[in-house]
């Protein structure tokens, strides 16, 4: 399921899950993050899960086994990020990239781009966005605000002159 195209992933799961329109791994890992309280976990997609647990979970889902016995939401979140990263072709195909960069603040163009993606890419992206949305947006915004505020403070005030000449 890793390092494949979305089309190949859908073909791989066709016999096992003929009625699914989304990749099994995407929905299972997303649901596991939610089940383990990921929406209230600070840094859920920033802090990595234990590498041994992530690898064990990867081995399980590669065999079509559901996650069991995991108590840390960072583990399925890390594996979910890995799955997105290792897609053989980007979720946003290269032919859309320039238009995305040029119009990153234009919501109408952004929505038009999404609506013109290949069907499976659009479905997977919309599922991801819906997953990142929360019934209580303050959860996402508050965690993001704290994390970005910390980075902004460091960017503005941390003396990094000691890094001069370090390669």
From TrEMBL:
Per the UniProt entry, what is one GO biological process?
signal transduction
Give one Pfam family: RhoGAP
Any Gene Ontology CC annotation: cytoplasm
> Which GO molecular function annotations are given, in alphabetical order?
GTPase activator activity
Q: Where is each Rho-GAP domain found?
A: 4-167
Q: Could you identify this protein by its name?
A: Rho-GAP domain-containing protein
From which organism does this entry originate? Ridgeia piscesae
């Amino acid at each position: 399921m890793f390092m494949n195209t979305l089309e190949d992933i859908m073909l791989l799961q066709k016999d096992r899950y003929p009625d699914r329109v989304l990749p099994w791994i995407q929905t299972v890992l997303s649901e596991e993050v939610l089940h383990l309280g990921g929406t209230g976990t600070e840094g859920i997609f920033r802090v990595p899960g234990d590498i041994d647990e992530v690898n064990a979970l990867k081995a399980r889902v590669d065999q079509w086994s559901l996650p069991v016995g995991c108590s840390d939401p960072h583990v399925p979140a890390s594996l979910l990020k890995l799955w997105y990263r290792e897609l053989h072709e980007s979720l946003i195909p290269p032919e859309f990239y320039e238009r995305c960069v040029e119009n990153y603040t234009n919501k109408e163009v952004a929505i038009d781009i999404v609506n013109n993606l290949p069907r499976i890419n659009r479905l997977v992206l919309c599922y991801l966005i819906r997953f990142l949305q929360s019934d209580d947006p303050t959860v996402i915004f508050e965690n993001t605000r704290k994390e970005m505020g910390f980075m902004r403070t460091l960017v503005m005030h941390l003396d990094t002159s000691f890094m001069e000449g370090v390669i």
